[in-house]
Structure formats: C-alpha cells, structure tokens
Amino acid sequence: MKTSDFYYDLPHELIAQTPLKNRQKSRMMVLDRSKDFVEHKVFEDIVDYINPGDTLVLNDTKVIPARLFGHRVGKEEKIEILLLKQLEDDKWQTLVKPGKKCKVNDIIEFDETLKLKIVDILEDGQRVVKFIYDGIFNEILDRLGTMPLPPYITEKLDDPDRYQTVYSKHEGSAAAPTAGLHFTKEVLKKLEEKGVNLVYVTLHVGLGTFRPVKVDDVTKHQMHSEYYIITKEACDIINNTKKQGKRVIAVGTTSCRVLESATDDNGVIHPHAEETSIFIYPGYKFKMIDGLLTNFHLPESTLIMLVSALATKDKIMKAYKIAVEEKYRFFSFGDCMLIL
User: Fold this and answer.
1) How far apart are CA 293 and CA 289, in angstroms?
2) Does the pLDDT value for residue 209 go beyond 80?
3) Which residue in 295, 306, 299, 303 sits closest to 336, CA to CA?
4) pTM of the entire structure?
C-alpha cells in the first residue's frame, strides 16, 4: 500500500481559512457505507442520523496558546517556540525555529516573567525545554502565547474561541479536535433530548497530526504518540451501548483513536490514562466504532488513511472527488463528513 494511493487534487481556494459565523451551519456529507451513496446536508441535520440509545464520543481536550515568540539572551533575533507536550513539572517537548541556532543550555527570554532553558535535543530535532517563570504558568501562557493554527491557515483568527469546541475542558492540545468544532450547545441539547448518550474522553492533540507521511510504503510510517484518558464511567456507558445493540459513533479521528486503543480484542473497552501511537490504515479491523464524524483531511495524510480503513479507500476517494466538485470547504475550519 503506497502513500500516493491516498493522493487527491485539491484546489487551494477550497482550503477554509476562516470558520463560519454559525458553527452548526457547516455542510455535512453523509456517507452510507452499506448503500454506497452520499447525501449533502447541513451539520445541524446530524440529529436525524443518530438514534436513541446510540452513543456519541467527543474529545473534550482544550487547545493551549502554545506558540511563543522570544529571543536568546543577549541576541535580538526572534525565536519561535511551539509547545508540543508537557513531560513533567515545567519541562516540555517543543519545536524551535530556527532550531540550528538554539543549543543545549541556551536561555530564551519572552518577557521579564518568562524564560526557558534548552535542556536536551532529541533525534528528530525537537527540543526539551525547562521553563523559568515568576507567577502562574498558565496565566503567563494565556498572556504571551498565541493559538497554534495549522500551517495551511494563513489568515488571522479574530476569535480564539472558534478554535475550541464548545465543550473543551482539559488543557493540553497543540491543535483542535476539529470535527467537534461544528457542535453548538443547541445541537448537543437536541441530541440529549432525543435519547443519545454523550460521552467525553480526552486526547491531547499533538502537531504530529499534521506531520506528512514521508515514506512510500504506508506500513513503514512511524506514528506520533498522544496522551489520552478514558474513565470507567465512560467505558460503562459505551460497553452498555454495545450490549444493547446500539451504535458507538466517534466525533473525530482523535476520539476514534481513543476508542480503538482502549478496546480489547473481545470488543470491551477499559479505563486508561496513557499514550497511544495507534496507526489505523486500510486492513485494520475496527473493534469499537460503528460510525465517525470527521472533517476532510489532507492528501496522503494518516487521517485520510484512517477514514479509508473505515469506509474503504475507493469509497473515500470517490467521496472526496465529489466534495471537490461540490466545492465543500476543507480541513480544520471546513465542512464535515458523517460516515455510517
């Protein structure tokens, strides 16, 4: 299986640069795997497709203002730091630009309340840094940091809350779980009133999500790891849903990765708080999910491989061709697809 098998031609103008004013008015392509056809809907119509007793699983991670700009002590040159993952206490795994100029023991200063020391350089060039600060770190980060939008978004985001889900709760992500951006409190309420179970898990999204696959053979790709938590209460609801013969539908590829990582070979899900580096591509046998809500993904990415594993590569590539023809909006601030 080659990476190039997952390529499609996308006109640049279809990459959504800004979010819609009303979250729930995004377009939604519904892909019915059994009937092999698509419908064109609006996101708020999702209520019509989820049945009483079904369980929707949502990722309640919260994006932190993970991009910082500073300078090496004694130098004027601007240094960009991107926080990827908290390791312990005040130590973080980061991307540093320009990296070549930043050596172990270098001090980077942001203002009088915050600086960091580079303590290690990893094999892939990422830096482990230790922050030194005066005050409460999260408050300082809120003041000095900016939202780390994906590289394909070049326009400024006017309202940082539009890169958060309305149910975001646990801080730790370097990128948003974008399938969840379409939900409003109104849609969530309608789903609950219909008898749909809403279950929340946490997976802190790393920038590995946007890392391109650089190998020709898909199976040789090294997947990034991300920290996730799923509670006993969540597992009980999900397991009961399956016992009742109802569906478990993941909101986003991040929720999908949690569910598939935490489910055993007998189809039973268990509480976990650990890292996952699960890589889902065609040939994978799903253990838990029956459906997936997801945005449209980059060509040749691990995420388009994941959705192809669920719906088959042929159906996904055909659906993407239709999405381009119908001028759907793509990627993080774009439209979505419901695969059932």
Assistant:
1) 11
2) no
3) 295
4) 0.94
d(CA 201, CA 232): 11
Rg (CA), the chain: 20
How far are the Cα atoms of 15, 35, 127, 179, 321 from residue 324, in angstroms, in the given order? 10, 21, 39, 19, 5
Instruction: Write the pLDDT tens digit of every residue in 167-191.
Output: 999 999 999 999 999 999 999 999 9
CATH architecture, range 67-144: Beta Barrel (2.40)
For domain 3-63+159-339, which CATH number applies: 3.40.1780.10, 2.60.120.330, 3.40.30.10, 3.40.50.2300? 3.40.1780.10
Tokens representing residue 127 in the block? 């830096």
| Cβ proximity of 192 and 203 under 8 Å | no
| Cα–Cα dist 314/292, whole Å | 17
Q: What's the mean pLDDT when you consider all of the chain?
A: 95
